[in-house]
Design goal:
The chain has one domain: PK beta-barrel domain-like (M1 Pyruvate Kinase, Domain 3). It has a seven-stranded mixed β-barrel with strand order 1-8-7-11-10-9-13. It has a three-stranded antiparallel β-sheet with strand order 6-5-12, with no helix packed on it. The protein is built from six helices and 13 strands. The chain has 213 residues and is an alpha+beta fold. The radius of gyration is 16 Å and the shape is globular. Strand 5 and strand 6 form a beta hairpin. The longest helix has 11 residues.
């Protein structure tokens, strides 16, 4: 079954004490839009990014989160979680985001995307949700969503199919990378066999394998 986009979400400027940026501004509060949106190597047109030291850039141009995983959190917290509630640009349906292989390519609308790395939970996320122990709980759940590169710029919109057009043979998934970096350090050597992994993630893995950090 081919998955699809349940929604495309954009964030405006939110000013809050819990925002991670020194200016106190964040774009984590993303809302669905009913028009096609341009994805490019620079990111998502019309989407605000506050803390560019940790967000944005070619390896984190687009963030995707699965509607099914959002439903789990809604049940866990006993409250609704709307599309964009994780700060994601793309809310997917019937797409195994956690099981996506790093480097696999998605054809979505007229864009071509490549899975790069999992999302790392931050204090801004916890503050946005008002759940003080969210980082710990999000890490334990290990369903982090995936960042994507934009290999071919194009427009995407709600309802567009998400088709996996290429999947690397190494088999290392978003979930495995997340667990290696946060829960299961014995998995770290596996990350070194992934050529599509961003350099910053590879360097972190090497540092931890060597016991330097």
């Amino acid at each position: 079954m081919t998955g699809r986009l349940a929604s495309v979400n954009l964030g405006g400027v939110t000013e809050a004490q819990w925002a991670g940026d020194a200016s106190g501004r964040t774009g984590i509060d993303k809302r669905p839009v009913d028009v096609a949106v341009l994805l490019s190597t620079d990111g998502v047109a019309g989407d605000f990014i506050g803390e560019r030291a940790h967000h944005g850039g070619p390896d984190q141009a687009v963030y995707a989160y699965a509607e099914e995983d959002a439903a789990w959190w809604a049940a866990e917290l006993g409250r609704s979680v709307r599309p964009g509630g994780f700060g994601e640009n793309l809310t997917t349906y019937a797409v195994d985001v956690t099981g996506a292989v790093v480097g696999e390519r998605w054809a979505v609308g007229s864009a071509l995307l490549q899975v790069t790395k999992p999302r790392t939970p931050c204090t801004t996320f916890a503050g946005f949700w008002g759940v003080p122990d969210l980082i710990k709980r999000f890490t334990a759940r290990a369903m982090p969503g995936a960042y994507l590169r934009v290999l071919r710029a194009g427009e995407v919109g709600a309802g567009d199919p998400v088709e996996v057009v290429d999947r690397p043979a190494h088999g290392v998934t978003i979930g495995e990378v997340f667990r290696a970096l946060s829960l299961e350090p014995e998995l770290l050597p596996r990350l070194l066999d992934v050529p599509e992994l961003p350099d910053a993630v590879r360097e972190k893995a090497l540092c931890r394998i060597a016991g330097r950090c």
